Amino acid sequence: MDPESAVVLRDGSAVRIRPISPDDQGREQRFFAGLSERTRYQRFMQYLRELPPGMLERFTHIDPKREAALVALAADEIVGVGRYAPDAESGCAEFALVVADAWQRKGLGRHLLERLLAAARAAGYPCLLGRILDDNREMLELAARLGFAREARSGAELTLLHRFAK
Fold first, then answer.
1. Own/partner pairs for 4-11, CB < 8 Å, 24+ apart?
2. Cα separation of 159 and 107, whole Å?
3. Pairing of strands 77-86, 93-99
4. Domains of the chain
5. Which of 34, 63, 98, 153 has most Cβ atoms within 10 angstroms of its Cβ?
């Protein structure tokens, strides 16, 4: 995975994308606190008022042999996070993606998800999957544009899958 790169978004704003590090705990906490209730719910599929300490630790201390986590930074603050971790049931990597409300619809989610696809493929995973709420239209449209197929439905949750060519 690339150590760091600069990206210019559709509106001309620039961000840096790099792997997350343990030093990002404060940034991650501030990022989470700045998300709207709707964005938090779409990411975590539950209402979280704050990011529990164990979850914060887990998010910023990853095992790079099994998982990846990228942060997008503007003015040295996190404005987007994309990550994947192994899904034991399917053997795929499962991704999660969240972009700060003010940074949505600028192409940042696409940059993060494309990098996660490339990283999961390079790591040897046969596929990348995501579990998305069916009312998260923007995420569903992005995933479809990047070649994800709808695999399953469980209540309001859809499972999307992108298989890598052999």
1. 7/72, 7/108, 7/111, 9/103, 9/106, 9/107, 9/108, 9/111, 10/106, 10/107, 11/106
2. 22
3. antiparallel
4. 5-163 (3.40.630.30)
5. 98
- Indicate the residue type of 70: L
pLDDT digits (tens, 9 = 90+) for 50-74: 889 999 999 999 999 999 999 999 9
The secondary structure of the chain, three-state, reads CCCCEEEECCCCCEEEEEECCHHHHHHHHHHHHHCCHHHHHHHHCCCCCCCCHHHHHHHHCCCCCCCEEEEEEECCEEEEEEEEEECCCCCCEEEEEEECHHHCCCCHHHHHHHHHHHHHHHCCCCEEEEEEECCCHHHHHHHHHCCCEEEEEECCEEEEEEECCC
Give me the pLDDT at residue 2, please. 63
Query: Whole-model pTM?
Result: 0.94
